[in-house]
Amino acid sequence: MSDRDPLEQLARLGSGGPVTPLPPAEVRRLGDRRRARRTAVTGVAGAVAVLAVVIPASLYAARDDGATPEPPSSSDTATTSIPPKDRIPAGFPLGLGAHDYGSDGHTEGPGRDVSGTTPTPCNADPLASRTATDRLAFASLAVELEDYRHLSLYADEKDARSVMKAAADAVAACPTEPFDAMTMMWTSRAADTGYESLTFSQGYRDAIGGTTFQLTRVGRAVLMVAFSGEGVAEPATLTPITKQIAPHMCVFTPEGCGPDASSTPTATTPADCTTADLDATVKPLDSAAGSTYAEVRFTNTSSHDCAIHGSSTLRAVTSDGLAIAGNTTTSNEFVLAPDGVATALVRDTNPDNFPAADCMPANVSAWRITVPGSGETIDVDPTGYSTACTKIGNVSIDPWKPDQGDAAAARRAAEAAAASARAAADAAAADASAQASP
Amino acid sequence: MDESEFDEFYTASFARLVGQLHALIGNRDEAQDCVQEAFVRAWQHRRSLERADHPEAWVRTTAYRLAVSRWRRVKLARRPADRAVSPPAWTEPSDESRVALIAALRQLPEAQRQALVLHHLCDLPVQAVARETGVPEGTVKARLSRGRAALATLLSPDSGATHV
């Protein structure tokens, strides 16, 4: 009864009906446009931050091309039906500390109509467990990251407190939740924001992807900051954002903001380093018994300090675009000043050490490394380490460390350059005055 | 890969990849959207595609990751009207055994479904399935064997589990 054989059926499944592809020229045009943009954004030769492939991207494609109008931004006309007391004031800085992804990403809001992720452990919806009198949302969306913030204002402090409790209860009551054929997991996380906060992550037992949420109550308002991406973001990614926004929530307290409120908000920790901040190069090191080593050097090419903190994953990417399982390490927190360098040691066990059948070697076109904390990945060119085993992990990364020697060297070089520029200017000035005098 | 080579590759493989992704994710509209997006990226990264031994595998893997990621996010974002989480809207003439098969595949664990589709529909040898999914061949064989058994049970005439 072969037509009932599911495998026969599967083999004959075919395309399942007509398809409506875009014309090939249109596909190439879209690809070219992104290529041009990315080149303009990354710009730096050597390690190119080719961002990995994970996002609701065809939604983005429409926006990228300007085909979809920008969402309406918040305006007072939208709030006329809300009594002033129950309204979030215009200009509330919900977008503080958002990373600028340039034309590789886009932001929405702050506005009342911006949509995004809110936590729903086992179908509970804590933020909606009390009626919010007003809401405001903001999203910053990049190729593989989603930074979403949401502010709910409740009628009184009691309601806001019970929303926080509902969220804590919902997470505690829902360690796992079936999601299609997978298992979704909800995990409480530790973080100190200096406010009444609750931090937790949602991930999957056997799959990548997830979201970390941080809820913070000030007065009768609850702020939510969430990061979604291929990895599960560390709380340290969210806490600096909460710390920047929460001081502005004093307007929702009975005491108000006080006379010197405008000077209170200060960020103490710089934002996490992102792929846009970092330029990566590979420096080959000596070989040891059966292994070769390389140092990946990450230079902060931005003009601001940024923080390295949390886990980093290395995966080798084969020339046909497949990412091979690698390893994950956790780095201690440190701050990278502009031009500062962080290094991470990569160990590559020679694939020739393994029987070909155990190793199943493949050509490697990149090492894909997660920037700690941000969940973004950066692809580096593994020059000289062009083969990897697809069946066993033969490439691994150590925690990121600050490269003190090199930062100092860079500073010395900069000082020397400045000194020589000053000397040249002095000489030119002397020259000019010499020429000017008869 | 020049323009005419890309166009030929795209035209020849688009429908096939949509069918494969449909079986992998259970939603035809999503499958087509994701394959479309994967081809845009393929042209964007055509230099690496040129070096790829199996360009079609590259596009399929990219499309599959897009679909999985998008589907998870949409679920989390609670957009009930989104078709990614709605029951599939079949646009093709209804073919009962086909619908039953896709519905049964959706009930399998992701890894088993992926192994079955890559091996039986995409006609890849076990070694290539192992490479595409990043797991050892032995694991692929185990997934295939469990997946076949589960599928047979789900589709057996006495089973009420096909929901069709």
UniProtKB/TrEMBL annotation, chain A:
Give positions of region: Disordered. 1-34, 63-128
Query: Where is this chain compositionally biased, Polar residues type?
Result: 73-82
Classify the source by domain of life: Bacteria
This one is known as DUF4232 domain-containing protein
**Pfam families assigned to the protein according to its UniProt record, in alphabetical order:** DUF4232
Q: Which residues cross the membrane?
A: 39-62
Ranges for the DUF4232 domain?
A: 273-400
Give the Basic and acidic residues compositional bias ranges: 101-111
Keyword set, alphabetical order = Membrane, Transmembrane, Transmembrane helix
TrEMBL record, chain B:
The record's section on InterPro entries has:
RNA_pol_sigma-70-like, RNA_pol_sigma-70_dom, RNA_pol_sigma-E_actinobac, RNA_pol_sigma70_r2, RNA_pol_sigma70_r4_t2, RNA_pol_sigma_r2, RNA_pol_sigma_r3/r4-like, WH-like_DNA-bd_sf
Q: What is any one GO biological process for this UniProt entry?
A: DNA-templated transcription initiation
Q: Which residues form the RNA polymerase sigma factor 70 region 4 type domain?
A: 99-151
* GO MF, one annotated term: DNA binding
Q: In this protein, which residues make up the domain named RNA polymerase sigma-70 region?
A: 16-74
The UniProt keywords, alphabetically, are:
DNA-binding, Sigma factor, Transcription, Transcription regulation
Q: Which Pfam families match?
A: Sigma70_r2 (PF04542), Sigma70_r4_2 (PF08281)
> Record's NCBIfam families?
SigE-fam_strep, sigma70-ECF
Similarity comment: Belongs to the sigma-70 factor family. ECF subfamily.
Q: What is this protein called?
A: SigE family RNA polymerase sigma factor
Natural source organism: Nocardioides jejuensis
